[in-house]
Write a structure and sequence with these properties.
The chain is built from five helices and five strands, in the order ββαβββαααα. It binds FE2/S2 (inorganic) cluster (2 copies). The site of one FE2/S2 (inorganic) cluster has 12 residues, from loops.
Length: 157
């Protein structure tokens, strides 16, 4: 099977896919984008969060074929070249990255939240990120990172 889609603004093609292959597998193993992490492969941890046609999805639960003709944005696609996105910077600066395994998914989920709700309450943040599990940080630094990102994005033009 062949998959043709747009990933991070570029037209991409992957050949010889097995019909049951996940979008996560294709991104990581065939398209050279290891940012999205494979932690549970069951839709439980959110480490593989990406956008598919503008909707936040767990890439491990999406069949690659479902992305045919679609537009995928991964954590790599949020940066502008070498310039990190304010959400990415905020996670680093707030110390919200320890082992880092959960971080890409949290960053994409935070980006999605702040796109919908630029000034979220702590309760809204906790609800939006409830599907993203972190075993290291205790979540407080993650809340700090989201607050910092919201502040930074508010002052951007
Ligand atoms: S790897 Fe997809 S939700 Fe955990
Ligand atoms: S930083 Fe290790 S799982 Fe979140």
């Amino acid at each position: 099977m062949r998959l043709t889609c747009t990933v991070n603004g570029e037209a991409r093609v992957a050949d010889d896919l097995w019909e049951g292959e996940s979008l996560l597998y294709v991104l990581r193993e065939r398209l050279g984008l290891p940012g999205s992490k494979n932690a549970c492969e069951q839709g439980e941890c959110g480490s593989c969060s990406v956008y598919l046609d503008g909707t936040l999805v767990c890439a491990c639960l999406v069949l690659a074929g479902q992305a045919e003709g679609g537009e995928v944005v991964t954590v790599e696609g949020l940066a502008a070249g070498d310039q990190l996105h304010p959400v990415q910077e905020a996670y680093v600066e707030a110390g919200a990255v320890q082992c880092g395994f959960c971080t890409p998914g949290l960053i994409v989920a935070t980006h999605d939240l702040l796109g919908r709700e630029p000034r979220p309450s702590d309760a809204q943040v906790r609800e939006a990120l409830a599907g993203n599990l972190c075993r290291c940080t205790g979540y407080e630094k993650i809340l700090d990172a989201v607050r910092l990102a919201a502040e930074r994005m508010e002052v951007l033009p």
